[in-house]
Structure formats: structure tokens, C-alpha cells
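To: structure subgroup
Subject: Chain for Friday's discussion

All,

I'm putting the inputs and outputs inline so they're searchable in the archive.
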Amino acid sequence: MNENAALAQEIMGPLTGITITLIVGLVIVTYFYFRARERQMMIEKGLTPEQMSELFKSKRNPYTWLKLGVITIGAGLGIGFGVMMEEAGWNEGFIPLFIITLVGVGFVAAFFVSRKFEKEDESLEIKQKSTLM
């Protein structure tokens, strides 16, 4: 049985690298394909380059990196607490439990933080519009 486990490890190592490379490549190709299709459809609808650039600017969410940071902090805390529990003699099952739980908490926190900032931006835009009139 030990020889089979060693053989499986020899096969799975390169196979995992190949699979991950293919998946990442497929995601990148798909992204560029659909981005080109979207632009082609806009050109067919008769949008000018200025209108297209304005549309792409309005689609960007300025708080994407903030959300990603909050979620990453949650994942890091989950890994840290899980490893601390394992080192303290608790069951190994706490590592995935803490990771999943704190990543979920990170998603919820990211939602509320970004919503707060978006509301502040909207109120600021309304104030700017009212002062212009």
C-alpha cells in the first residue's frame, strides 16, 4: 500500500500543476473573449469611443480592493486561530472551521464597509450637485 501512495504522489504533483495552469489560462482567455465581445456589441450599437470609455469608468467599483482586503484579513485570522487551536491541543478540524467562518465574516464586513462608503459618496455627490445649481 505504501508503494501505491508514493506512486500517487508522483503522479498527482505534476498533474496538479498542469491542471492549475490550464484552469488559469482558460479563465484569462475567457475574460478577454467576453471583454472583446462586449466592446464589439457596443460598437454595433453605435456608441462612440468617448461614450464607451465613460461607460467603462462608471462600471468600476472603487472599493473592490477594500473588500478584498477585508476578506483576506478574515482568511488570515481564520488560519491563525485554527493553527492556534491545533497547537493548543484541539482537534485539527478547527482550521477549516475558522477559515470558512472568518472568511464569511469578512464578506459580511466588506459588504457593510463598502455600503457605508458608497452612501457617503452618494451624499457627497448630492451636496456637490446642489451647490452647482
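Points worth raising on Friday:
The chain has four helices and no strands.
The two ends are 80 Å apart (CA to CA).

D.
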